[in-house]
Fold:
Amino acid sequence: MGEWRAYAALGVAQIRSVTVYRASFLVEVFGNMGATVFDVLTVLVLFRATPEVGGFSLREAVLIVGLSSAGFALADFAVGNVDRLKTYVRAGTLDAVLVRPLPALPQLLLMDLPIRKTLRVVFGLVVLGVAVAANDIHWTPLRLFLIVLTPLAATVFFGSIFVLSASLAFWWVDSGEIGAAFTYGGRDFTSYPISVYGSWFRNLFAYALGFGFVAYQPALALLGRADPLGLPAWAGFLSPLVALGAATIAAGVWRAGIRHYRSTGS
Amino acid sequence: MIKMQDLKKDFTVRVKAGRFRRLKRTVAAVDGVSLTIERGEMVGYIGPNGAGKSTTLKMLTGVLTPSSGEVSVCGLTPVPQRTRLALRIGVVFGQRSQLWWDLPLRESFELLRHVYRVPAAGHATRLRRCRDLLDLDEFLDTPVRQLSLGQRMRGELTAALLHGPEVLFLDEPTIGLDVVSKQAVRSFLAELGRTGDVTLVLTTHDLADIERLCERLVVIDHGRVVHDGSIEALHARYGSRRSLVADLDRPLPDGFTLDGTTLTSVTANGHRVTFTLDSVTAGVAVAGLVAAVAVRDLSVVEPDIEDVVARLYTER
Ligand SMILES: Nc1ncnc2c1ncn2[C@@H]1O[C@H](COP(=O)(O)OP(=O)(O)OP(=O)(O)O)[C@@H](O)[C@H]1O
Ligand SMILES: [Mg+2]
Structure:
């Protein structure tokens, strides 16, 4: 209870700090929006060149993109700030976070405002909405449940990826953008039908690491299509399990990372 | 209140050896420190640069995980119980800020009240006391990034105290402060120590802080404790003596000796002389000197802590 009030106070303080820099704030909002638009354009351009990718039509593929980008945008909004960790670790300023009576991760997330990422969330949800409308989905209660569940599980999944890639900085101070490459690579992987990938690559990322269950398998279940790769329809409902697994691993790695933190000489 | 048992922290650093080769080297920053500090003690924790002072404080506050050994602060183990411990301790790392860069001090303090979940009344009382003793009123509404170093430091101290901590860890709280600010900080801490319920561990390179505040002095070097005791004990250990400085009407005659003292310096053409008191009291020495030569002015000088500590550091 008290902790929630503490987080609320930290959030409000951040809003107050940000309003001091309103001009740069607007620039950032639109800059971020631009990046998301580009992601979707990439997919559209790809399909202009070939009407079909991996056995999927443009409409069907956009559903995969929509599920993935809605989840990603929500995750970026909620925990994307964690990528600032590497600056704090490098400068040793995480010390100040660690001596406060709150867990480090929520504090870090509240050290910068995700308001500027709200437009991305809106855009991601719009893409999902358009994709759902464009496909002729035969709605059943189970599918309605799935269309809500999938983006949420994707949020947890991508959120875990954000935390995992940021944690790299605890062991490797000069990791630079490698963590980000992993995060965005993961998102891009989930945006395409996994049938387009080569088999060992697919086995590793889609099945072993679970990326295939985030958007691809749920999209099949929503569309009522059989999986060309042979998994049964219920595989579309595995995303919460995969997300839970990812979150557990991320929490463990984060905790180990905090213990591995070495500060800087002072 | 604080217990350390054979506490160690090693850092692995990679040193360049040739163009591509990197060698791993282990630096023992803290190398087996055992200390017990009771409630209400004010301990000066000093040592030369790189001795391991900051590293020790980081282990005591739960920021760093010890490589081996045991720590307990307020009966808690800092690393697994970090957030619980944080409610009961106050920390100032002179080189790091606890405050919110873009917010005025006043708002930072208000925010800390929520972060530490303390009742408004106690918070307000403590804030009022800090405002009076540290003269904060002048810049209470200035954003932190616009404060001078000394002003910010006074803000940091206040921030560390608003939740009424039982133990205070201060890492170089007087670094970069002017004489007046230093004195303000020292009297503030002295005032705090008078009540006897706050335990204080202070690192500094300004030994005047220690002389003014700390009964107990712990000196570390290369991660090991080399002295633990009062300042007097340190003087006794190194045989530092008080000395008698006198201004004379006429230069001191050649071959002059004063029983139980050593003549250590003659300056100002023989008009100013200094005797170290080896085995007599100041009274006896003064009487002996005044009887022998015409003395215009004299004073008794206490041994200099800087000299003793410098000897301790260079001895290694
Ligand atoms: N994050 C780190 N990584 C590697 N080595 C470190 C790190 N932090 C400290 N050290 C090393 O540990 C030793 C002790 O450092 P520490 O900062 O504790 O010294 P200190 O006593 O606080 O010195 P100073 O008086 O200069 O502040 C030094 O040799 C330093 O190089
Ligand atoms: Mg230090």
Residues A 266; B 53-54, 171 surround magnesium ion (ligand 2) (CB under 6 Å).
